[in-house]
Amino acid sequence: MNPLEVVNLSKTFGGLQALSGISFSVLQGDILGIIGPNGAGKTTLFNCITRFLPFDSGSVILFGRNIEGRKPHQVVNLGLTRTWQLVKPFFGMRVMEAIMVPSFCSRARAKHHSKKARQENVVKILKDIGLYGKIWQEVDNLNQGELRVLDIARALVTFPKILLLDEPFSGLSHKEIEIISDVVRKLNIQGLTVVIIEHRLRELMKLVQKVVVINFGRKIAEGSPEVIVRDPNVIEAYLGQRRPKIALA
Questions:
Q1: Distance between CA atoms of 68 and 71, rounded to whole angstroms?
Q2: DSSP 3-state percent helix, strand, coil across the chain (nearest 5)
Q3: How far is CA 16 from CA 11, 44, 68, in A?
Q4: How many other β-carbons are positioned within 10 Å of the β-carbon of residue 136?
Q5: Strands 193-197 and 162-166
Q6: Closest by CA position to 63, among listed 209, 208, 162, 190
Q7: C-alpha radius of gyration, the chain, whole number
Q8: Can you say whether residue 217 is alpha, beta or left, with left for phi > 0 and alpha for psi between -120 and 50 degrees?
């Protein structure tokens, strides 16, 4: 059984077909990339998978359970969580306080019953992802790269089995992207399954094992990075007429 199955998922907004029969599987231990031009439906797909939006038809099967009708927090408690394209930290809080907030979800409280144990887990996560030195700083003082890491840390507090990252490289320098990439690789080695939406193709292709390409709400290709960058449909629809020079190693 695959951890996540998306089957014929469709979503409309009035007369706009945002998603049309999208299907793909996420294997245990995968780092899967989802790419497509602006407006292709990528974030809508994440919103439907995490139940922030209802979908019109199809199904999302999470660890063998159909999530239709569930609330977003119930999806989190099943082991799937996400970050956001536009980072929305809890301004006015310190880093430790901001990351403690999701530790009160049912899944986290089931893992650590006491507040002390949850605090110790937050400290461990901050050390693992490189934010421990900022633990008592105000969230308002973090730079964009640190806010991206903070967003990942908040998600990790819920003990996810699958982590969805929505454009984690957006607005970051090459050095900051390497930091985020190293965090993702480390989490994946530890057993976390990751799905990433990203526009920074060169950096994404170095990170993922498989890519799903969508355009106008439809899946047009799926395969390894090496296959995807040579797919004529992908080149025409998303990357332009000329084959892109994307480093794969």
A1: 9
A2: 40, 25, 35
A3: 9, 12, 22
A4: 9
A5: parallel
A6: 162
A7: 18
A8: left
For residues 45 and 214, the answer to whether their CB atoms sit within 8 Å is yes
The token pair that represents 28 in the structure block: 């245990």
Whether the CB-CB separation of 196 and 204 falls below 8 Å is answered with yes
Element (H, E) at 45: helix 42-49
Tokens of 126: 């901050």
Say yes or no to pLDDT of 5 above 90.
yes
Nearest Cα neighbor of 15 from 53, 47, 56, 51 is: 56
Q: What is the pLDDT of residues 142-192, one digit of tens each?
A: 999 999 999 999 999 999 999 999 999 988 889 889 999 999 999 999 999
Contact 156, 125 (CB under 8 A): yes
Contact 31, 197 (CB under 8 A): no
Query: Tokens for 113?
Result: 């019953």
Token pair belonging to 81: 């969580």
Which two three-digit tokens encode residue 200?
């920074």
User: Which runs of consecutive H residues, i.e. helices, occur in 51-207?
Assistant: 72-78, 95-100, 106-111, 115-129, 144-156, 174-189, 201-205
| Cα distance between the two ends of the chain | 30
For the chain, what is the mean pLDDT? 92
